[in-house]
Design a protein that fits this description.
By secondary structure, this protein is of the alpha+beta class. Helix content is 17%, strand content 26%.
Length: 164
């Protein structure tokens, strides 16, 4: 392999982030299905970006935590609901009840300290346009003109040192 790794046209980082966020959704979904009770000593710290698209929190919390906010799901929370895109939960802040809606894409961290488990994420902004890139040379229309490689195949075989 060369010193310079080429930029991937496949967004592997985004795919992995999305898959790991699905872990958060599954865990919260199992808590919701179980009646909203956390088993054993489990409790969750969920950090998210309040300004991310789709986040709905009371204005006084948005003003207090403009860049990042961490909530704790442990003893006093209610109405936990999960969906494909995010979750909502009722929490109390200084004895004032509040309902929060948080898309999974806004989450930057999920930690369950009871079992020393944690995930870190990059907050995603869906309105952000993808980086511009040059068109691949093989994306043009096939009009029968151009170099003929004999069998029409563009397959490349790579051997990573597998013993035979």
């Amino acid at each position: 392999m060369s010193e310079e790794t080429p930029d991937s046209l496949i967004p592997y980082d985004e795919i992995v982030q999305e898959a790991l966020r699905a872990v958060v959704g599954r865990v919260l979904g199992e808590i919701q299905t179980g009646g909203g009770e956390l088993p054993g000593n489990h409790h969750f710290y969920i950090t998210f970006k309040p300004g991310a698209p789709g986040v709905s929190i009371p204005q006084h919390l948005r003003e207090r935590f403009p860049d990042e906010m961490t909530i704790v799901l442990q003893n006093k929370f209610w109405d936990l609901e999960t969906g494909d895109e995010g979750f909502s939960v009722g929490l109390s802040f200084n004895q004032i009840p509040a309902k929060l809606q948080v898309p999974f894409a806004a989450i930057t961290a999920f930690v369950d300290p009871a079992v020393d488990f944690g995930l870190q994420f990059q907050a995603t902004v869906p309105d952000m346009a993808p980086e511009a890139h040059d068109d691949a040379e093989n994306d043009g229309q096939d009009n029968g003109e151009g170099p003929d490689d004999g069998d029409g195949s563009n397959v490349v075989t790579v051997d990573f040192g597998r013993k035979k």
